[in-house]
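name: query_chain
kind: protein
chains: 1
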Amino acid sequence: MKNNPFIPAFQRRLLSILLQWPDTYSRYEGIWDPTYFDDPLHRKIVHAYIHIRVIGGEQPTQLSVKQHLLKDYDLDKGDLPEDVTKLINEMEALYTISTDN
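structure:
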């Protein structure tokens, strides 16, 4: 775990801002690294976001981040593993956090 200057609750709020505000990434491009986040779920979400943003060359949406996170799973087979369900639930929750000051 990296020695981060902010507590996990602030990191979570920061991640929700990244996901919800398209210009956040480019305004603060130097800080977005999965290792910045203490929570392993948040690291996976940031990794998916950055992959779509940098490699894919497009602004990630809630749907595209979710699709990237689920790309290795056969959704037609039924239930996802519990850890993956937890990951998706957290990603969806990040999109509901108010980004107002």
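note: The chain is about 55% helix and 0% strand.
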